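hey
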């Protein structure tokens, strides 16, 4: 501002006043949007309850009993088996996180909910499990603390500590190593190692309190882990919870693929344009090589005739013609006068 002239500074001040008015309206928009989201979240709740009851066999859908043959009554399935596991596995982001060894535990998942939190700003995911042979917890939670509620800037994430039952931890595996030959101890050596698992989601990456000691590579790796973790959480919140049955049936995945295909088509058109430009450039380079060859042939002819002094004029005229021909394609001028073919 100090470098501006007084009249321009006055105009900028007027622009600032306009910006202040805009910011006031924007603040009202965020406030009204939050109220609208809260209103509809309450309206969704009864629908989610109905979904829960059907998925877990609390209530029966009208007419479903009549669809079951009498001989199958004893083995009748309850609710919709593997509902949440199937819905999550159908989503590309979550499918990468779910390992085969996780699936048996995720079959006990009864419901997933989310809610906003205000202090600090953010949101919380809740995973409700039936009693199972893997862990004691009936509810696993994941909370995201955001720096700004309106912008997806993650401050930190906190997950539930899972109380694994003996020998059932899915986030670790036991490695057995044979003892060396001649060793007095004939028993195999066992070693516990961390392994990939969806349940690592509840043990999110943490930013050290003293981040001065983190080198650039470690910081970048940590940032990537946090971004991936947030991507998983926001996918569950924004896609899986509100549209679970569409993911269970696969319809939502097809819609996602259709959207990706549209994006790919747009990129494909750009690629075709690039290829056309490259073809035009190749044609111009071919024409240039032909012109150079003709100039060399003409030069040899003029030398033979003792007319070398006239070649300079011919070369200048030929160069101008070539330059006009290739100018629309913005070739660097130095290409026109290289002594060897461009290849």
């Amino acid at each position: 501002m100090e470098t501006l002239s007084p009249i321009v500074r006055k105009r900028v001040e007027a622009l600032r006043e306009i910006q202040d008015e805009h910011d006031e309206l924007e603040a009202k928009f965020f406030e009204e949007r939050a109220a609208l989201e809260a209103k509809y979240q309450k309206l969704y709740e009864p629908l989610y309850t109905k979904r829960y009851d059907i998925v877990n066999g609390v209530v029966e859908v009208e007419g479903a009993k009549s669809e079951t043959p009498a001989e199958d009554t004893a083995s009748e399935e309850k609710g919709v088996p593997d509902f949440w596991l199937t819905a999550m596995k159908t989503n590309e982001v979550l499918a990468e996180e779910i390992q085969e060894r996780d699936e048996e535990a995720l079959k006990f998942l009864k419901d997933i909910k989310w809610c906003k939190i205000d202090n600090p700003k953010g949101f919380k995911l809740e995973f409700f499990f039936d009693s199972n042979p893997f862990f004691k917890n009936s509810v696993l939670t994941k909370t995201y603390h955001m720096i700004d509620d309106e912008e997806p800037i993650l401050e930190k994430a906190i997950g539930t500590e899972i109380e694994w039952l003996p020998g059932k931890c899915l986030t670790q595996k036991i490695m057995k190593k044979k003892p060396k030959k001649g060793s007095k101890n004939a028993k195999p050596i066992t070693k516990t190692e961390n392994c990939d698992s969806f349940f690592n989601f509840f043990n999110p990456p943490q930013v050290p309190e003293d981040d001065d000691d983190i080198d650039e590579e470690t910081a970048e790796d940590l940032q990537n882990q946090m971004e991936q973790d947030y991507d998983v959480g926001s996918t569950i919140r924004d896609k899986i919870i509100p549209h679970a049955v569409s993911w269970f049936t696969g319809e939502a995945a097809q819609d996602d693929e259709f959207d990706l295909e549209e994006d790919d088509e747009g990129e494909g058109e750009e690629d075709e344009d690039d290829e056309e430009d490259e073809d035009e450039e190749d044609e111009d380079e071919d024409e240039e090589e032909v012109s150079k060859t003709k100039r060399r042939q003409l030069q040899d002819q003029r030398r033979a005739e003792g007319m070398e002094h006239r070649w300079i004029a011919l070369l200048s005229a030929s160069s101008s013609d070539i330059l006009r021909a290739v100018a629309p394609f913005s070739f660097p001028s130095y290409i026109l006068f290289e002594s060897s073919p461009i290849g």
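The two ends are 53 Å apart (CA to CA). Helices lie at 6-55, 83-90, 92-95, 103-106, 216-240, 244-249, 251-304, 311-326.
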